[in-house]
Specification:
Helices cover 35% and strands 24% of the residues. It is α/β, with parallel strands linked by helices. Strand 3, helix 3 and strand 4 form a beta-alpha-beta unit. The longest helix has 23 residues. The radius of gyration is 24 Å and the shape is elongated.
Length: 424
């Protein structure tokens, strides 16, 4: 049975094109019957383009279905046309029937010799389905992020000494433009935003009730900046708000990460909102949002057991569309303003991070085994047991900064495929 994540390709519509390579020595009717049976077994939506390569390269994902052996020369004749129409890797789909795998291996070997990227997609139906699904989702995410604008409101927090980004590399590899926005612009916008006294959230204390109007004011001001600068996301130097307006951005970020704004944004993706001016974390969250539809939980690893791979990750805000329920508390470090204590459904999770220069990445899967509410940590606290305990060594020997992104579900292969794609 196909898993839930694998079904996502069906929701994307026919954005996959399949072109064919067939030897003239084979009977077309027999090959066509095998083709139909094979493609039906994959349970994907596709356009079968046959041997007409006129629009090759114009779809999210173009597959070359090597149906028989003896097709190497045909591919070689088509290569200049395909190369002129697309610079993407060559994906050779094969059922293994009629010496098609052997032909695919010869073709891929030639491509490698010439410096081209490529891959043979071959295996059982479930494996091929999942592989095509991942490649399609990566292609759609890369397309979605082209021209995206992400704001850096204020500078990265002073303690984030390794969490900067190479703006040129980010634009070149991801198609994302990083936009600097002065903290003063946000503060001026907050001051110009009317205060609303309506209280809709649970308010366990009078102090939190009194903090809510300004927390909502911060939310409205950030939303205004998103529209004004045509942003699809931002990271905020949020600790400056503690002294400037005696409140936090935690509630605003939690709400914005779960919303879709219409004006001036890429509405297909929605808003990504990060903390502390951490640009690599913001980039990671943006990639996660494009691939999965969820921004992810930006969190600090607070303690790690290297022997069992069990770790606690915590922060004072979390996207509201990630939680079963949440409670309002104060911000942990300062004890003022609003913090979010979110509770996530236990089960599989993936931890992900890319570096600001895009040279490194980390991804590991694990199991969320419980939510905690310890008083000496940031308000949302997740205890995760890594699937491979040895992955815990990364955090202690060569981490990519302190913040990492936690995403519900198993997405390791999907995230790795995305990283591999922007390195090609």
């Amino acid at each position: 049975m196909m898993n839930i994540e694998a079904k996502a390709v069906n929701e994307q519509g026919k954005k996959i094109a399949i072109y064919t390579l067939t030897s003239e020595l084979h009977d077309e009717r027999a090959v066509a019957a095998v083709t139909q049976e094979f493609l039906n077994s994959l349970h994907i939506e596709y356009d079968l383009r046959g041997n007409d390569y006129a629009d090759y390269g114009s779809h999210s994902l173009d597959l070359i279905y090597v149906r028989t052996g003896g097709t190497e020369g045909i591919f070689l004749r088509l290569l200049p046309q395909m190369q002129a129409q697309s610079d993407k890797p060559f994906y050779l789909l094969t059922s293994g029937k009629s010496n098609s795998l052997a032909a695919s291996m010869e073709i891929l070997s030639y491509l490698r010799q010439q410096g081209f990227k490529g891959e043979i997609i071959h295996g059982n139906s479930q494996y091929i389905h999942d592989r095509i699904n991942n490649l399609s989702r990566v292609a759609e995410a890369m397309k979605l992020l082209q021209g995206t604008r992400l704001g850096i409101i204020g500078q990265p927090s002073d303690w984030l000494i390794s969490s900067r980004a190479d703006k040129d590399k980010v634009r070149q590899c991801l198609g994302i433009e990083l936009v600097d926005i002065p903290m003063k612009e946000l503060l001026d916008t907050i001051a110009a935003t009317p205060v609303k006294n309506e209280v809709t959230e649970q308010t366990p204390t009078d102090a939190i009730r009194q903090s809510l109007p300004v927390a909502h004011q911060i939310y409205e001001a950030l939303k205004a900046l998103v529209v004004r600068h045509r942003l699809s996301g931002f990271t905020l130097r949020c600790f400056d708000l503690l002294t400037a307006v005696h409140n936090t951005g935690c509630l605003a970020l939690a709400r914005l990460n779960s919303e879709r704004l219409q004006a001036g944004t890429k509405t297909e993706m929605g808003i990504v909102a990060g903390c502390e001016g951490d640009v690599p974390a913001l980039l990671t969250m943006t990639i996660v949002k494009a691939l999965t539809g969820i921004s992810g939980f930006q969190a600090n690893p607070s303690n790690i057991d290297p022997e069992t791979g069990t770790m606690t990750l915590a922060h004072c805000t979390i996207p509201l569309n990630m939680v079963e329920h949440y409670e309002l508390d104060t911000h942990f470090e300062s004890g003022i303003g609003i913090g979010i204590r979110g509770h996530i459904t236990t089960g599989p999770v993936t931890i992900f991070k890319v570096s600001g220069d895009l040279r490194r990445s980390f991804v590991a899967e694990g199991e969320l085994i419980r939510n905690e509410s310890k008083p000496d940590l940031c308000r949302t606290q997740l205890v995760v047991r890594l699937t491979c305990p040895a992955d815990a060594n990364y955090f202690l020997t060569h981490p990519i900064g302190n913040h990492h992104i936690v995403v519900p579900g198993r997405h390791k292969s999907l995230f790795e495929d995305y990283v591999s794609d922007y390195h090609t």
